[in-house]
């Protein structure tokens, strides 16, 4: 009861995730519609307050997203559509940007407007008064359509430094027009943290509306600037997962959220349980983008709680808080020791639990499995991105594995005609198939041989396929890691293969994917009710 | 004259670089003696005040460094040796740590001591008074040997929060013993920026000695925390190049220094000319470590001044300061335009400019090229990730393309033996090669055929290879996009190929990569002096 009261009285900071909008403006960043849906569902499960899904006026892919996401029921997050204030030469009723937000049929609109007088006169080329009218009319119009409106004051901090009266006038206008949140944006990311604090504090004294902040990392202060703004009174933070975004990126929510909760005492997301999902969410975004995770990333990186062997390791076991700023498990991460076989068994135990297998984490068979997994990791595997392959190794050690697929021989021939021929000898059966690429050809031949005996395999579909070079030295002789995600329509699982040949690595991951499904269906006769990704 | 006076009166912040000491404690970081010498000379040229060369008591490689570096005359930097305060059970005269600093025969000693009472009683296991004596005696001893002494107060901020009186007593003791600089360390990197500011300010009011700061990046605030400490009165900053270091790393000097100079008005290094070397220094450290440079790194990353949206590109050409927080050339970096489905001809124009081609953005040929590019993007291409392939299309439209590589036929055979055979008929020559995978096999066969005629191709190396499925529906029949990054040691370029076959897509990207290089070298006879990635 007392605990409950505490939670009620704890101040909250709401989170707007713009991975799908501002994040997608980063170099080398591109999401498919499926990616966007997958990410939105994951963000909702994490507990963010708003998901900025895209800019419906700017491209058809974003418009499709708003249609598609309606088919899902989200538990908490509100979907927000992004856009600009109205054009200078159109009325609100005719304005395509505002109307495409309304057409997106969402509950929340995020619109950005000019608050730096340089931009008003030099870029937008209107008078200061005209810009105030544009801001006022645009917000009023969206409000009149029943939308919650978040107003992003673009380049606010630069604007305030050069022409504070006008910058304030713009956001006062937005407040008067009924904006529900006014987010102060450090659009070019160049404002140092002490200025963010001072300016935000002044604004907090002037306005009554809920204030937000939108920061970028151009001087390496994206995260700190968001924290300083909260310290100055902001209660709404915008950012992206892993800090992806234009130039040096947006503020990284993965880094901001734990500090807000653990060091500043705010209530964020769905409370502490949400924090434990942070590492997983961070990983999935990297994987979708085909990027290797940043091992040095604060809170969630592989090295974030890495300790060297020896005295230090011993000391950290006795007095962890003497060496660690937080308990790594709070953010779903792990203490890592250079010499230790202990780290990881807990991980495996929790994976096995998901498929109905209960094993003690000190079980010798588990330790043997872990040693095999770690050895493979030195060769380019990464347990995080293809856990089903690691589970197969573990099932073997636990004597819970049955041999359903015995591949004796395979061969693929590709040529410039575009066609590939796959030949497979599996379970003593030789099959040949034509495919549009090597993976497709082998996949077809494999299925021809296996489906007769295991008809359940026809339910299995490949839904994602990624290749990266995990090693430091990269050339055409490098080891490649192929990750494949499968689904049977109910559950998803990910496998991986590592080889110097992209074809061989693909074949390995393909076989693991079918094998894993057969182990679940036929050996364990149990299906997890959750994603194992 | 007036300018000169201004410089004289400008306040300075001194920089201690600990790349060679704290940096080398990072995971997967290891420097050879030669590396260390090379880095030290580069840091001296950059203009840092102190180079912390290593911990002579802890390993022989560090001792050798101090001997070797004496053979060089440095223009400005002072070499500093690192160590701990004396052991609790030895006298200063017999203490190996202190004496190895003295033996290193340097001008400056950096020693760290306990300032968090938890560490004093739980880790060091001495009384608080004993620790004060240890600090006092150690500094006195080094001073009596004529050394300048920088005292690093380990875990100072944590110590201050738990036991402020004692933390202050420790640094007052260091001051009384004659320390020249007292650096407050956020050793576990967990202190938020507003606390760093408040605590540092209090210390500044109490002590008279020059204050320094040593921060880590565990909550993503390493850079901001150093800046906040300077704002609170610190005039000595410790960090590493690229932020390498234990766990999530040290504060990144490459990010701190430009903000101190360009945004806070301090005199750092050898003034503004030094800033222009920052990108080069950052690159060299990555190269020595065999790590890919971080394209999102503030100030110096490839994407730090990258613009993607078309309208935006047009505007930044007209009013750069409306979109860029600093002029990129100040830190030796470049503005970059990203080619994508959103971009207009302005992006293409600026790319072409870099390879010496001037075309008007309204040129019809350019519009035709852009239409082709946009059409390909609907088929899965994404030219922001492989712009060189887009340039090849544009060169064809501009009639500036020459046909050097004419592939008539190719074939790859892969099988479970692990070996791949690549067969290529290019420019009427048939070649066959064995490779460890299909891409390697084709790469080898292609080069065999082409290098006789175009020997320059032997300089071209592949440095990155990525595969993703860009299409909405993902299965083994989906289109895959392969992106390859190449280098000739001077410039880098990225190409892409799209096909339902991962092998074909790889072959396309490979051929484009070699073709682009030949166009630059042979047709245009001009090489950009900057990266085109």
Automatic annotation (TrEMBL), chains A, B:
Keywords: Amino-acid biosynthesis, Branched-chain amino acid biosynthesis, Isoleucine biosynthesis, Transferase. The keyword Amino-acid biosynthesis applies. It holds the Pfam family HMGL-like. SMART domains: LeuA_dimer (SM00917). The keyword Transferase applies. It comes from Sulfolobus tengchongensis. Residues 13-276 form the Pyruvate carboxyltransferase domain. Belongs to the alpha-IPM synthase/homocitrate synthase family. One of its GO terms (biological process) is L-leucine biosynthetic process. SUPFAM superfamilies: 2-isopropylmalate synthase LeuA, allosteric (dimerisation) domain, Aldolase. This is Citramalate synthase. One of its GO terms (molecular function) is (R)-citramalate synthase activity. Pathway: Amino-acid biosynthesis; L-isoleucine biosynthesis; 2-oxobutanoate from pyruvate: step 1/3. Its EC number is 2.3.3.21. The lineage of its organism: Archaea, Thermoproteota, Thermoprotei, Sulfolobales, Sulfolobaceae.
